[in-house]
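User: Show me a protein chain along with its predicted structure.
Assistant: Here is one chain, sequence first, then C-alpha cells.
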Amino acid sequence: MSKPVILCVDDEVVILDSLKIQLKKEFGNVYLYEVAESADEALEIIDELYQDELEIMVIVSDWLMPGMKGDEFLIRVHEKYPKIVKVILTGQADKKAIERAHNEAKLHRCLQKPWDAQELIETIRTGLAKIQ
C-alpha cells in the first residue's frame, strides 16, 4: 500500500524546505512529502496524486501567494476533496479570508509565520486524529 501524502504550498522555496525538514524529522517515512510553489501547481499535483491513487491527508498552505490566495485554493480543494486536513500558515492573511476558509473549506487551523515547529506538528496531529 502506498504512503499517504502531506502537501506544502508556499511561494518561498526556503519555507517549503523548512517545512519538509520539520515534517520528515517528526513523521519520518510514514508520509510522502510533496511541495508546490503556487496554488495552481498544487492543484496539478493533487490531481496527479489522486490519479496515482495516493491519498493526501494534510495540506499546509501559505495565504499570500501570486495568482490564487490560500483561502481560495483551499476552498477549491475542499469542494473536490473534503476530507483533506487544511492548514493555513501565514504572516499576513486578513481576518475575512481566514473566516472564509474556516466556513467554506473547513480550515483546521491558521498558524502565524514565523511558526513554532511543535505547534505545527501538534496541529497536523490533531487534524489527522479528526479524520482517522
